Amino acid sequence: MSNVSRHTRRIMERKKSPPGDSALPEQDSGVRKLIADAQGKQHRSLPSLQEAREHEGAVVILEGDFGGQIYVVAPAHFVTCTDEALRQLLSDLDSLEWAEPEGAAVYFEVLPRGSGVAGGMGGASVTNGVWVHARLKPHESAICAVLAGERARVHQ
Questions:
Q1: Which of 128, 31, 115, 133 is nearest to 72 (CA)?
Q2: CA 51 to CA 60: how far, in whole Å?
Q3: Which of 22, 62, 64, 91 sees the fewest Cβ atoms within 10 Å?
Q4: How far apart are CA 150 and CA 97, in angstroms?
């Protein structure tokens, strides 16, 4: 288990804390919120795919291992599939890489093009198109097709 994962797991436990505690909002990535706070920067997240689609500069981030691996980063306006299909895509990718469903999550964040997306295994980048982790490159065309609403699953 990576150091990022151990620390992020503790942050994830804060999400389960009782109200009034210093719980992390469900829409925030523990890893990226922690890093932004440490650097004195704002972490801008959005609560839903619909809000991300309506927000200039929003991206969709699919991650596993509690932020220990970033699977996919895509401009929100590119993601035309349903929220259900997006979550199924996350599940499919996680089963290929970590098979730890409780550590897999979809986040919607506002990040400028060219910026990095903090996370384990090298993190990711915000590009003009869809960024796919090198280990998932063999599935890139299927991933893009799911995001575009052209197919239901990576493996059909």
A1: 133
A2: 11
A3: 22
A4: 23
- Return the domain boundaries, the chain: 3-147
Instruction: Record the pTM.
Output: 0.84
Amino acid at 59: V
Q: Which residue has the tokens 């699919």?
A: 62
CA angle 125, 127, 130 (to 5 degrees): 95
Q: Which two tokens stand for residue 7?
A: 């620390």
Measuring CA to CA, which residue among 4, 12, 14 is closest to residue 122? 4
Which residues are CB-neighbours of 37 under 8 A, at least 6 positions away?
Answer: 43
pLDDT in tens, 38-67: 999 988 999 999 999 999 999 999 999 999
Strand intervals (E) in 7-144: 45-46, 58-64, 69-75, 105-110, 116-117, 124-125, 131-132
| In contact, 124 and 131? CB cutoff 8 Å | yes
What is the three-state SS of 40-67?
Answer: CCCCCEECCHHHHHHCCCEEEEEEEHHH
